[in-house]
From TrEMBL:
Taxonomic superkingdom: Bacteria
Regions annotated as coiled coil: none
Protein name stated in the entry: Glycosyltransferase subfamily 4-like N-terminal domain-containing protein
Any one Pfam family match given in the protein's UniProt record, by short name: Glyco_trans_1_4
């Protein structure tokens, strides 16, 4: 088997965010075809027990980067043209290690554009980049809702990411992205015509659809992620009060790791519950009559939505949340706060409609996001390198 060097900008385990789910999927599928050496950039030491998880998929080496090191590295953006986040994840220690081993490998795989800089000059090895999302599109949306300081940061990285995505598409041998929406965005801003393979995210499918009673809503996602913070903050401020006017006992659960201060302030212990990290999110999927994903920014397919669909849950989201999903009536897509509130009220009062939507959502996942479907998409990406 050929030898592949796999680099991840963050630890993969425990999987508490969509980026980790995506990275693990790639790693899992690549082990079918290559002998893998993993490079992990991490803020803390990785325990022996955790290393054993990585070593199921290949040999592994990790490099610690403290917050201070990340900050110092990020400041390089003042004198180069790279995106701030690419600078943020750049380490000379990692670069030196790569220089010492890269000639021993046939292929390198970058789990997102943050890790691509390590390999741009290594043209003798086949290079694969998973863009995951069109990050430039994410920042284009995010800057519209940000405060003044973050608007400046997002604006800088919007322009830089747009140029960088185009550059990597030109330089790397193979590229993938999570949806056709992200693919079209990158190609529209690119200086060249080149193929990008669309690879969705695999989703587990429940054996049956649970018919949930009650008036519980849930949002599930990593709560230090800016689009998630914006989504739940706006929902609590502008949507939930409208729902409570008609259904006073409604409860909104915000489920996910690393809630920031802004999110923690939403917790009132009654109508809004912020859980923080939970070992098993199944409890909250099972508790919720409706999964809400009121996204106002972000890019790519939302894992929170497709996971809910795979479990046969009724989902209410926005056009941004539904981007990349070619759907009809499997989920509810509402364009503004008032429409979202009205739809939630209707669905909480109509169990039959909720369950029918959940069954249709589950069928969609079975057809488009199963292991067989995603494995075939992934094979089309790496087959030229075998």
């Amino acid at each position: 088997m050929k030898k592949l060097l796999f680099i991840s900008s963050r630890p993969i385990f425990p999987m508490i965010g969509g980026d980790q789910i995506r990275t693990f999927q790639s790693l899992r599928l690549l082990t079918k075809y290559f002998n893998i050496h993993l490079i992990i950039i991490t803020p803390t030491d990785i325990s022996k027990e955790r290393m054993a998880e990585y070593e199921k998929y290949g040999t592994c080496r990790y490099f610690k980067m403290s917050k201070r090191e990340h900050f110092v590295s990020a400041m390089r953006f003042l004198y180069n043209a790279l995106p701030v986040q690419v600078n943020y994840y750049y380490s000379k220690k990692v670069q030196n290690y790569i220089e010492s081993i890269v000639d021993n490998y046939d292929i390198v795989y970058c789990n997102n554009l943050r890790t691509a800089e390590y390999f741009r000059r290594h043209t003798s090895v086949n290079r694969v980049i998973d863009f995951v999302d069109a990050i430039s599109m994410n920042y284009e949306k995010a800057r519209k809702h940000a405060n003044l300081l973050m608007k400046v940061v997002y604006n800088i990285d919007y322009h830089r990411c747009k140029a960088y995505e185009s550059l990597l598409l030109q330089e790397f041998d193979c590229a993938s992205v999570i949806s056709d929406v992200d693919k079209r965005y990158i190609l529209r801003n690119s200086k060249m015509e080149k193929g990008i393979q669309v690879i969705g995210n695999m989703v587990d499918v429940s054996e049956y659809v649970q018919e949930i009673e009650g008036h519980n809503l849930a949002f599930i996602g990593k709560m230090s992620y800016a689009p998630n913070i914006l989504a739940v903050s706006n929902f609590v401020k502008n949507v939930l009060p409208l729902v409570r006017n008609k259904i006073p006992d409604v409860t909104f659960y915000i489920v996910g790791a690393s809630p920031c201060k802004e999110v923690l302030k939403l917790h009132d212990g009654k109508s809004v519950i912020v859980t923080g990290f939970v070992e098993d999110i199944s409890e909250y999927f099972n508790l919720a009559s409706i999964i809400v994903a009121p996204m106002l920014s972000g890019a790519g397919i939302q894992n929170k939505i497709i996971q809910a669909m795979g479990r046969g849950k009724c989902v209410v989201t926005t056009p941004i949340g539904a981007e990349g999903l070619i759907i009809k009536d499997e989920i509810a897509i509402e364009k503004n706060d008032n429409d979202m509130a009205e739809k939630i009220i209707f669905l909480l009062n109509r169990k039959d409609v909720r369950c029918a939507m959940g069954r249709n959502a589950r069928k969609y996942v079975q057809q488009h996001l199963s292991l067989d479907a995603i494995s075939q998409q992934f094979y089309e990406l790496i087959s030229p390198l075998l």
